[in-house]
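Practice problem: predict the structure.
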Amino acid sequence: MQPTLLILAAGMASRYGSMKQIEGFGPSGETIMDYSIYDAIRAGFGKVVFIIREDFAENFKAIFGPKLEGKIKVEYVFQEMNAFVSTGGVPENRVKPWGTGHAVLCAKDVVKEPFAVINADDFYGADAFEKAAQFLINDCTDKQYALIGYQLSNTLSEHGTVSRGVCAVNKRNELVSIKERTKIYREGEAIVYEEEEGKTEVPFDSPVSMNFWCFHPTIFEFTEALFHKFIADNGDNPKAEFFIPIIAEDFIENRGGSIAVIPTSAQWFGVTYVEDAPGVKTSVDKLVAAEVYPNSLWS
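Answer:
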């Protein structure tokens, strides 16, 4: 069975200031998502599911529908605020989506096979998709998930701090924990993260999560129950978010599961800040010039 690619594209793009998910960076106007989908198809994925907001669905489908037709099966899922929220409904002061874990849960009815989850605005590289596909086809079970781990030094922005999930792994390269560090940046010859207590240096080769996960479809069963508990505990907090690492932590601690951290040598790049955009365009141009990608992906 071919795995599915789930793309999280419902974010508000608040720091970037525009709908960066559909901005063209390639020589023929390709978005970052186009390159992810192209790499996924080459690696053996059979379906792509876009998690989007309903209010930009028409625009989104008009862009991606025609170019992907006949190349890969496509589904669209809306991350609605009231999805899977039962008792009490959505609090009046809630304007922010419930987070990445909730976005994954919204795909419950259309994903029935092993699947990968990625962000819409991150460029992951072909190596990452090849490794994800190999895992999903050969090794993924209801007790074995995976995370594609990036080297921290390959994931920074030159234009400001970034948030990264810094991973702790055991001797078998299995995930032990993820600590979200919200202010990571390069300082001289070092990489540091900043907290109220001060700065702490982080090794260059620390594995970090860029939200590239590999899951078995049985994840939806316990995630729904976990989300209901999250709502019960945090529903009145307008800023509380149900992140994927909450699901991963529960899977390891309470479900008897393990999550392999699969290293990739790929160079990540993305558009955290508007100032990142020219650098992304340059990086894509270099890959096209090196014939890693054709000048026009879909023609």
